[in-house]
């Protein structure tokens, strides 16, 4: 059974897929994403394939007859893809060479472009879950791409508020965010010619990093080759820094936010950016939501963005002192 169920309280859709409860927790001595498993090519660099346990499919079944009145259902139409970064079971993004990282971004871009053109899709999101703390069941480094038949609620709220900001001020909200973060300075952790990384003033997780395009671009397909290389660099640097924060593979959820598919032009008020969320508070403590945070969406953060930005800047320096990005 797979379907979409409408939440009239929040004007949003919930994806239901009973099949996903059977996702395997694999033993450490077997990995379906490693060459020789029979699941992936015997030799590969980067690779994309359909998720075995998708919540959205190109040819979904009819929804069950469980709705009525306020309770609408829809077919769970869309796509769920898996992207492998490398055939090396231990090579996370900061472990890749510059050329390997560029191939990952090229595959992200190609997959996004293909799914973005399908008129049934309203939003395409590239994301990664990293670490057992956020529910990862296969440790081989990989990301995913979902093509939704709706705009996810968080993105919809961002779009609405960015549009209101443009109407009120005549300016793109992301330009104003970048201006303020650079003016204050203490929350900025890294910057290159095309992107800036900072833990925003309003972060809702202790190390809730943002990477934002400096140019008014809204999708991977908008970027030049030079910009994609710069995106790869800043991603490897900040994630490499995260791994040096507590001398361990840093668990996080990462989502790439861009323009909706088959929609109005949002270039004047929205912007390509990447958001990170992590349960890590300190080396020993996880930051888990309290009842008021889940029930009321009233987030309470136990640390200051300014203090955590200092830690992350220092950790990025340690990443470089320990070898940094491999130039191949």
TrEMBL record:
<feature type="binding site">
    <location>
        <position position="89"/>
    </location>
    <ligand>
        <name>Zn(2+)</name>
    </ligand>
</feature>
<protein>
    <recommendedName>
        <fullName>Galactose-1-phosphate uridylyltransferase</fullName>
        <ecNumber>2.7.7.12</ecNumber>
    </recommendedName>
</protein>
<dbReference type="InterPro" id="IPR005849">
    <property type="entry name" value="GalP_Utransf_N"/>
</dbReference>
<dbReference type="InterPro" id="IPR036265">
    <property type="entry name" value="HIT-like_sf"/>
</dbReference>
<dbReference type="GO" id="GO:0008108">
    <property type="term" value="F:UDP-glucose:hexose-1-phosphate uridylyltransferase activity"/>
</dbReference>
<keyword id="KW-0862">Zinc</keyword>
<dbReference type="GO" id="GO:0005737">
    <property type="term" value="C:cytoplasm"/>
</dbReference>
<comment type="pathway">
    <text>Carbohydrate metabolism; galactose metabolism.</text>
</comment>
<feature type="active site" description="Tele-UMP-histidine intermediate">
    <location>
        <position position="142"/>
    </location>
</feature>
<keyword id="KW-0548">Nucleotidyltransferase</keyword>
<dbReference type="GO" id="GO:0008270">
    <property type="term" value="F:zinc ion binding"/>
</dbReference>
<dbReference type="InterPro" id="IPR001937">
    <property type="entry name" value="GalP_UDPtransf1"/>
</dbReference>
<feature type="domain" description="Galactose-1-phosphate uridyl transferase N-terminal">
    <location>
        <begin position="4"/>
        <end position="152"/>
    </location>
</feature>
<feature type="binding site">
    <location>
        <position position="140"/>
    </location>
    <ligand>
        <name>Zn(2+)</name>
    </ligand>
</feature>
<dbReference type="GO" id="GO:0033499">
    <property type="term" value="P:galactose catabolic process via UDP-galactose, Leloir pathway"/>
</dbReference>
<keyword id="KW-0299">Galactose metabolism</keyword>
<keyword id="KW-0119">Carbohydrate metabolism</keyword>
<dbReference type="Pfam" id="PF01087">
    <property type="entry name" value="GalP_UDP_transf"/>
</dbReference>
<comment type="similarity">
    <text>Belongs to the galactose-1-phosphate uridylyltransferase type 1 family.</text>
</comment>
<dbReference type="InterPro" id="IPR019779">
    <property type="entry name" value="GalP_UDPtransf1_His-AS"/>
</dbReference>
<keyword id="KW-0808">Transferase</keyword>
<dbReference type="InterPro" id="IPR005850">
    <property type="entry name" value="GalP_Utransf_C"/>
</dbReference>
<keyword id="KW-0479">Metal-binding</keyword>
<feature type="domain" description="Galactose-1-phosphate uridyl transferase C-terminal">
    <location>
        <begin position="159"/>
        <end position="285"/>
    </location>
</feature>
<feature type="binding site">
    <location>
        <position position="34"/>
    </location>
    <ligand>
        <name>Zn(2+)</name>
    </ligand>
</feature>
<dbReference type="Pfam" id="PF02744">
    <property type="entry name" value="GalP_UDP_tr_C"/>
</dbReference>
<feature type="binding site">
    <location>
        <position position="31"/>
    </location>
    <ligand>
        <name>Zn(2+)</name>
    </ligand>
</feature>
């Amino acid at each position: 059974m797979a379907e979409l169920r409408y939440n009239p309280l929040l004007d949003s859709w919930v994806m239901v897929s009973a099949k996903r409860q059977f996702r395997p927790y694999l033993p450490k001595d077997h990995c379906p994403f490693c060459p020789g498993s029979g699941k992936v090519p015997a030799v590969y660099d980067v690779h994309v394939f359909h998720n075995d346990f998708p919540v959205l499919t190109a040819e979904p079944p009819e929804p069950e007859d469980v709705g009525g009145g306020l309770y609408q259902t829809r077919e769970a139409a869309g796509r769920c893809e898996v992207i492998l970064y490398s055939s090396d079971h231990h090579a996370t993004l900061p472990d890749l060479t510059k050329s390997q990282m560029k191939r990952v971004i090229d595959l992200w871009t190609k997959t996004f472009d293909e799914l973005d053109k399908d008129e049934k899709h309203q939003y395409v999101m590239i994301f990664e879950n990293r670490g057992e703390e956020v529910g990862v069941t296969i440790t081989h480094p990989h990301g995913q791409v979902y093509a939704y038949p709706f705009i996810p609620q968080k993105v919809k709220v961002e779009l609405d508020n960015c549009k209101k900001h443009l109407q009120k001020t005549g300016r793109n909200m992301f330009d104003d965010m970048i201006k303020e973060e650079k003016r204050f300075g203490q929350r900025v952790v890294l910057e290159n010619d095309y992107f800036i990384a900072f833990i925003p003033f309003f972060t809702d997780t202790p190390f809730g990093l943002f990477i934002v395009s400096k140019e008014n671009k809204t999708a991977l397909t908008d970027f030049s080759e030079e910009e994609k290389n710069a995106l790869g660099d800043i991603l490897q640097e900040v994630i490499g820094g995260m791994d040096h924060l507590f001398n361990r593979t840093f668990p996080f959820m990462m989502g790439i936010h861009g323009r909706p598919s088959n929609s109005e032009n949002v270039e004047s008020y929205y912007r390509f950016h990447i958001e990170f969320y992590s349960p890590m508070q300190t080396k020993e403590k996880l930051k888990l939501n309290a009842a008021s945070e889940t029930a009321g969406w009233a987030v309470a953060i136990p640390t200051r963005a300014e203090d955590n930005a200092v830690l992350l800047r220092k950790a990025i320096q340690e990443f470089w002192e320990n070898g940094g990005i491999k130039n191949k």
